Amino acid sequence: MPDNKNEEITEEYSMREFNLPKETEKTLISKVSEHVGEEVTIAGWMYNKRSSGKVCFLQLRDGSGFIQGVIEQDEVNEKVWNDSEEITIESSCIIKGKVKKEPRAPSGFELDVEDIQIVALAPEYPIGKKEHGPDFLFSNRDLYLRSKTPWAVLRIRDQIFLSITDFFREENFIRYDTPIFQPTSCEDTTQLFELEYYDSMMYLTQSGQLYSEAGIMGFGKVYDFGPVFRAEKSKTRHHLSELWMMDAEMAYFNQEMNMDIQEKMVKKIVKDVLENCQTELKILERDTTILEDIVKKSFIRLKHYEAKKALEEDKNFTTAVDFGDDMTTEEEIYLGNKYELPIFIEDYPFAVKAFYMKSYTDKHGVKRAVNSDLIAPEEGREIIGGSQREDDYNTLLKEINKRNYNFEDYEWYLNTRKFGSVPHSGFGIGLERTVRWISGVHHIRETIPFPRTLNRMKP
Ligand code: 4AD
Ligand code: MG
């Protein structure tokens, strides 16, 4: 197909004449249970159709849910019957019908259709006729978004977003937005997206953390929530180039308190999804046994050394263990399967972690970070990274010099330690990693409307 394909103007896709119902005249499919026996108007789309002789079954969706509409030829006028024959998959339509209980239907309700207005008749729909591979689905993400799996996953995402922001309000944090253009690096400098900014160079943010550290000196406890960017050359099902991160930062908090608040937040997220997203979890066929346990039990806390040692001594874990390195994918997945609970891995070797972490030297002479990564079970991998921050001006300055970072770039950040430093801690949770784990979908690209990965930037 040529790149600059320009389709001819055609009447084919025009909208028809129809009456736009007022907000108050419409009923959401998610609310039909409140209208049993009544006539309702639903404005939506037809996502599937089946007919057998004199009966036609329309599968309808309106964004809030799914319901089956039934049309019997003998019960409706000719126009309605003809429209039911003409309507195609993904045509938009306004349907009037009477709500009735139907225990066999997934939603528990059905619609006896009395009237159909076709708003726009869709041409042959490219998705849904047969099984499609992920490449096809994501090349057509604009249309694929209408399917049931994305519907369920992205509604769970919405719930998790809401749970996190509710949680921080309850805990007396303020929302504090950090810049997306940043002149310095927060995490690994090899993963920065660089861009021209007027006459100089800038980076796209990897995390708002450094700015949140300045924020707590004014507000005590802050959080941000926004897109961050990682130029990671990883093609795994856990990596995105653009993701949404929530960074929380707390003054007068040590690492123990940091883990406690993370545990409380993750429990709230899981509890809220279990309570409010039952339809979505059912669509995804998510087995929620382990999630239900998580709400009730304490999370596991293991030092990095203990975790590596346990893996090394485990007869069923056959890969070589490197005590000086980060946790590998296999190690995180193995531990998650073993404990079936979220696991805090604490005190990583400082050498593999960021410059801002507080550190100490252990009895074997290994310099360790005062930090934790939270590993989710069921192949969820690391969903949170956090630490106590180095609060001493001179220690932090020495580390900045040691890593050859430019003093001028970090001078403002060092001011947080120069003027009234306090012990403080914080963490960042990756929204898509969390959605992937809780929804149970295989690949992280399912968890964001339009994923950006190493090899996908369209549509
Ligand atoms: O562990 P990370 O790199 O930590 C930070 O950026 C800290 N500054 C956060 C803080 O303390 N305020 O990233 C935090 C989380 C990870 O645990 C993971 O969930 C997610 O962000 N994440 C990614 N998710 C998807 N794709 C990627 N490429 C990700 N990189 C990080
Ligand atoms: Mg991390």
Please state the second-level CATH architecture of the largest domain. Answer: 2-Layer Sandwich
- How many DSSP helices? 13
Question: Quick one: CATH class of the largest domain?
Answer: Alpha Beta
Spatial strand arrangement across the major sheet: 6-10-11-18-17-16-13-12
Q: Provide mean pLDDT, rounded.
A: 96
Q: What is the gyration radius calculated from CA atoms?
A: 27 Å
Anisotropy-based shape = elongated
Class derived from helix and strand content: alpha+beta
Poorly predicted parts: none
Characterize the quaternary organization of these chains: single chain
Distance between the termini: 16 Å
| Ions, cofactors and other bound molecules | 4-amino-1,4-dioxobutan-2-aminium adenosine-5'-monophosphate, magnesium ion
CATH fold label of the largest domain? BirA Bifunctional Protein, domain 2
Domain count: the total is: 2
| Major beta-sheet overview | 8 strands, mixed
Structure summary, number of beta strands:
18
**Range of helix content:** 25-40%
**CATH homologous group name of the largest domain:** Bira Bifunctional Protein, Domain 2
Give the amount of beta strand, in percent. 25-35%
In words, what does this structure look like?
This protein is α+β, with helices and mostly antiparallel strands. It folds into 2 domains: 107 residues, OB fold (Dihydrolipoamide Acetyltransferase, E2P); 306 residues, Bira Bifunctional Protein, Domain 2 (BirA Bifunctional Protein, domain 2, 2-Layer Sandwich), CATH 3.30.930.10. Strands 6-10-11-18-17-16-13-12 form an 8-stranded mixed sheet, sandwiched between helices. It is elongated, with a radius of gyration of 27 Å. The structure holds 4-amino-1,4-dioxobutan-2-aminium adenosine-5'-monophosphate (4AD) and magnesium ion. Magnesium ion (MG) binds next to strand 17.
